[in-house]
Amino acid sequence: MHEFLTAGIIGISLGAQYALLALGFTLIFGILGVINFAHGGFYALGGYVAYAAVSQAGLPFPLAVLAAVVATAALGALYERFLIERLVDDHLATMMLTLGLYLVISTGLLAVFGPQSPEFSFPVQGTLRAGTLYLPLENLVVLAVCAAAIGALWLLIYRTDFGRALRALADDRKVATTQGMRPGLLFPLAFGLATGLAGLTGALVTPILALSPSAGDPVLVTSFLTVILGGLGSIAGAVVAAVIVGFVEAYASVYLGGSTGALILFVTVLVILLARPTGLFGREIRGA
Amino acid sequence: MGRIAKRSLVAAVVAAGLTFTAGAGAQTTCEVRIGALGPMSGPAAQWGLAMLGAAELAAAEANARGGLQVGSQRCSVSVLSYDTRYTAEGAAAGVNNLASQGVRFLIGPVGSPEVTGAKPVATRHRLLMFANSYAKNAIGPQWPLVFHLGPGPSEWAPPIVRLAKEQFGMRSVAIVAPNDQGGTDIASVDAEVYRQHGITATEEYYQRGTTNFAPIVTRLLASRPDVVDTASSPPGDAGLIVRQLRQAGFTGPIGRLGGPGTEEIIRVAGGIDVVRNFYWYEVAPTEDPRVRAISDEYRRLLNREPPENTNLWLWVVGARMTLRAIERAGTATDTNRVAAALRELPVEDPNLGRGAWTGQSFFGINQELSLPFGMGMILDGRMVGVRRIDVSPQ
Question: Does A117 sit within 8 Å of B267, measured CB to CB?
Fold first, then answer.
C-alpha cells in the first residue's frame, strides 16, 4: 500500500511537469502547424539561464525563473519571426530549422558551461512526511507553479481576445486573416509563449533533477509521446495525456522495474493509439 | 688544388649539406597520432574528459622530451579526439573517423557499450586499443590488439566489500545500474562479490536516459536494503539517485563499486551532508603526493586546469605505456609489433608506482594493466580519505 500511494504522488509530480512541457509543444503545432524539435533545447536553456542568474548575477530564484521565461520566450519569438515565419508552411524546412536550433542551443550550452552538471539546488528544501509516505517540498512548489501556469494558459487561450485570435488562426488561417488577424504578429507571440513555457519548466525542474547541456534530449521524446497521445494540437488532450504518462511511468517503474516500466509506457501509448489513431482528443487536431 | 678537386670539394659540401638537411627534415616531420575516444558530453562526460586529458598530458610529456624516438626518426605526438556520447554506435563511428585521419593507437573508450561497438571496427583497421570498461568480455584472446586499463571489478570489488562490511556491518545491498552492458556486466559481478561476503544482493536496472529516479528509488527501498550501491551509473545519475534516496528517507550507507565521480555525485546530490555515509572504488590512491603530482604536471605542460575526474591519473599510465611501447617496437605503424612490445613492458609508473599485468584468470588473456587503486570513504558527512590497495601479479 505504501508503494502504491508513493507511486501515485510521484505520478502526479511527473504528470504536472510533462503537462507543462507538452502544452508548449502542442501549442506550436496547433497554431502554426510546426513540430518544434528545439523544444528540449528551450528546456535546457531555461535551466541554464536560471542557473546563471542565481550563481553569477546573484538574483533570487523567483527572479531567475522569470529571467529564464523572458529569455526563452524572446529567443523563440525572434526565431519564429525571422526564420520560421518565412517557411512556416514547409513542414520539412521548419523541421530542419527547429532541429538545427536545438543543436545550436545544446552545443552552445556545452561550449559556455561545459559538459558537467553544475551545483544548482532548489531554494526550498525539506520533505513532508506522513508515516512512510513522503513528498519533497520542492516537488510541491513545482506542482503548484505548474498548475497555476496551466490555468493561466487556459484563461489566456479561452478567455482573452489574444487567445481567440490564436484559435481562429489555428482553425482557418485564411479566413482569420481576412477577418483582420495578423499572423506576422501573432505567430511569433504564440511561438514565444510556447518556448517560454519550456523555459519555465527547465528553470523549475532542472534544480530538482540535474542540469546538463543534454538535459533536453529526453524532454523532446516525452513531449512528443504525450502530445501524440493527447492528440496533436489539443491543449486539453496534452494535459490529460501528460497525467496518464506520469502515472503509467510511475506505477510501471515501481512495480515492474526501470527497464520494463519504460517498455510498458510505450506499449500503453501504442494500444491507445490503435483504439484512437488521432489521439485521445483527436477531434481538436489542427486542420492541415 | 686543381679545378676538378675544387669542384669535388664544393660538390661534397653541397651533398653533405643536402644530406644533413634531408635528415633533419625527416626527423622533424614525423608525427604519431593518438586517438582519444570516449564520452565528451552527457552524464558520463567526466570519464571521457579525464581520458582525453590523460592522452594530452602523455603527448605533451613526450613532446617536451623532444618527441618519441621511433626507429631512426624523432616523432612529435598529437592527440585527436572523438565524442562517442557513451554509445556503441558513436564509438564505432569514432574508430572509423580517427582511423581515416591516420590514427593507429586508441586511448579509450571508457564504457562497456562503447568498447563493444569499437572492438570490431578497431580490429578491422588493426588499431591498438587501450580500453577501460567493466565488460566481462572487455578483452580476450580473440582481441590481441585490445588492452584493458584495470584492474576490473573482479580484482578490486572483494577487498572493498570486505572493508565496507567491517565499517558498516551491512547484511543486504540493492545495486542500481543502467540496463545496458555498461551496467549489467559490473552490477552482476558486484552482486556476486557481495554474496561471497555473506551479504544479500539484489540488482535493479534502469533505462539509460532516465531523468527522474523517484520510482526506481521507491522500488529499491521496497526490499529494505541496508546499503544501496550505485555501481557504474554515470556520476550525474548517481548524484540524483543519492539525492532522491535521502528525500525518500533512506539513511543507510551508499556504496559505489563502479566508475569514479565522487565530486560530481556530491555536487548533484546537494552536498557532502546529503551524501553522508559513502564508500567507493577509487581508480588510484588519490592521497599519494606522487599521484597528485600528475595534476601539477598537467598544469605545467598544458597551462590549464586538469580535468576534475580522478580517472585522469589512471589513464595517463595507459597513455604513457602505449608511447613507451611504440618507442620500444621502433614503429608507429605496425600495431602487432607495438602490442608485442607492450606485453613485455614492466608495469611501473613514476607516479602510480608498481603494478602488474593481470587478466589471465578472468579474461583468458594477460592484457589487463593493473595498478594500485583506492577505497574512498565519507563518514557522517566528513571526507575520511582514500585508502591504498595494491594488486598482485597473475
Answer: yes
Q: Are B151 and B358 in contact (CB under 8 A)?
A: yes
pLDDT of B28 higher than 80: no
pLDDT confidence band for B394 (50 / 70 / 90): low
| Domain boundaries defined on chain B | 27-151+286-368, 154-284+376-389
The answer to whether the Cβ–Cβ distance between A210 and B215 falls below 8 Å is no
For chain A, where are the E strands, in sequence order?
127-130, 133-136
Using the beta-carbon criterion (under 8 Å), do B218 and A115 form an inter-chain contact?
no
- DSSP letter string over B309-321? STHHHHHHHHHHH
Among all residues of chain A, which has the CA nearest to that of B236?
A: A117
Q: Is A3 on the interface with B (CB under 8 A)?
A: yes
Contact yes or no for B197/B159 (Cβ under 8 A): no
Q: Which chain A residues are Cβ-neighbours of B237 within 8 angstroms? A: 210
Q: In this structure, which amino acid lies at residue B284?
A: A
Spell out the residues 6+ positions from residue A159 whose beta carbon is closer than 8 angstroms to its own. Answer: none
Cβ <8 Å between A250 and B49: no
Low-confidence ranges of chain A (pLDDT < 70): 283-288
Cβ of residue A116 closer than 8 Å to a chain B Cβ: yes
**What's the rounded mean pLDDT across residues B61-80?**
95
Specify the CATH number for B27-151+286-368; select among 3.40.50.2300, 3.40.50.300, 1.10.10.200, 3.30.70.100.
Answer: 3.40.50.2300
**Chain B residues contacting A, CB < 8 Å?**
40-43, 45-46, 49, 179, 204-207, 209-212, 214-216, 218-219, 222, 235-237, 239-240, 247-249, 264, 267-268, 270, 308
Q: Do domains B27-151+286-368 and B154-284+376-389 have the same CATH topology?
A: yes
Instruction: Give the model's pLDDT for residue A126.
Output: 87
Minimal C-alpha gap between A276 and chain B (Å):
28
User: Is there a cis peptide before residue A183, judged by omega within 30 degrees of 0?
Assistant: no
Q: What is the ipTM of this complex?
A: 0.85
Identify which of B209, B215, B264 has the shortest CB distance to residue A117: B264
Nearest Cβ partner of A110 from B41, B205, B270? B41
- Retrieve residue B344's grid coordinates: 613485455
Cell 518565412, located at residue: A86
Q: How far apart are the first and last CA of chain B?
A: 72
Mean pLDDT, all residues of chain B: 89
Looking at residue A88, which CATH number applies to its domain? 1.10.3470
Angle (nearest 5°) at CA B381 between B376 and B384: 35
Confidence of residue B16 (pLDDT cuts 50, 70, 90): very low
Number of domains in chain A: 1
Q: Choose the closest CB to B212 out of A209, A254, A255.
A: A209
- State the average pLDDT over residues B41-52: 86
Q: Is A71 on the interface with B (CB under 8 A)?
A: no
| Residues in contact with A155: Cβ distance below 8 Å, sequence separation at least 6, in sequence order | A163
CATH architecture of B154-284+376-389: 3-Layer(aba) Sandwich (3.40)
pLDDT above 70 covers a percentage of chain B that reads: 92
Residue of chain A nearest B204, judged by CA positions = A257
Q: Is the pLDDT of residue B18 over 60?
A: no
Range of the domain at A262: 2-284
